[in-house]
Amino acid sequence: MEALKKMTPKQKFENYIAAPGLHINPLVEFDRHKDRLYHFDLTSSNKSLNDEILADTGSFSDWINQELQQHQSKYGIGGYNEHRTIYSRSSYFDGAEEPRRLHLGTDIWGPAGTPIFNFMDAKVHSFKFNDHFGDYGATIILQYELEDLIFHALYGHLSLNSLVGLQVGQTIASGKEFATFGIPEENGHWPPHLHFQLILDMQGKVGDYPGVCQYSIADQYLENCPDPYPILQAAFGTSAR
């Protein structure tokens, strides 16, 4: 007990989420025996993803789909703590002194309309249509509890229909389908995918929280936004890494 008191919120989360017997439901439908998962590299080292492709959402979507088809994969995944140059496609990530380029969540790339399931019992913290080019588009933030720890998960780039009928404080049961991947016109003008991000302290924000930060302050954001890998394992196994 004394050791727990000395833990940071991030350390507590990592301890609780790894507890034996804790049941975590898969976020998306995936058959480990037959489905494949492809790891995308969206950093500057990926030379096949050029400025011309990134400048046009349709071309970017075609590139994502071609990569998935070529690798015979149901979904693409990746991005946590990844330094991405792709955010240069939107002025939303610009800054007076330093642009935001470090990704704080994990992306799951797949078709628009892909169902998303809640991984543990939760309640609705907030939701919002963040309608800027390059932003989240339709967004839901759920609040969870593990022992004495409250944490949150942000689900971004959703369909607008995912927000219909939601209420703050509403209970979302573990395993329940509550959202779907949105089309570009609803998801901030990105190829269809889910941005999944864990957040320990919402810092007073409602319906939104930075999913990309400046590299110079990465440490403080990564401390507040733990690696989602333990939750993604429920669907994808060790291939989620």
Can you describe what's shown?
This protein is an alpha+beta fold and 241 residues long. It has one domain: Distorted Sandwich (Glucose Permease (Domain IIA)). 20% of the residues lie in helices and 27% in strands. It has 6 helices and 13 strands. The strands form 3 sheets. Strands 1-2-5-12-9-8-7-10 form an 8-stranded mixed beta sheet. Strands 3-4-13 form a 3-stranded antiparallel beta sheet, with no helix packed on it. A hairpin with a 2-residue loop joins strand 8 and strand 9. The longest helix has 14 residues. The chain is globular, with a radius of gyration of 17 Å.
How would you describe this structure in keywords?
alpha+beta, globular, single chain, 6 helices, 8-stranded mixed beta sheet, 20% helix, 3-stranded antiparallel beta sheet, 241 residues, Glucose Permease (Domain IIA)
Would you kindly provide a brief summary of this structure?
With 241 residues, the chain is α+β, with helices and mostly antiparallel strands. Helix content is 20%, strand content 27%.
In DSSP terms (H or I, runs of 4 or more residues), the helix count works out at 6
- Please give the radius of gyration in angstroms: 17 Å
Distance between the termini: 31 Å
According to CATH, the homologous superfamily is Glucose Permease (Domain IIA)
The run of helices and strands is HHEHHEEEEEEEEEEEEHH
Q: Give the amount of beta strand, in percent.
A: 25-35%
Principal-axes shape call? globular
Low-confidence stretches: none
The tally of strands reads 13
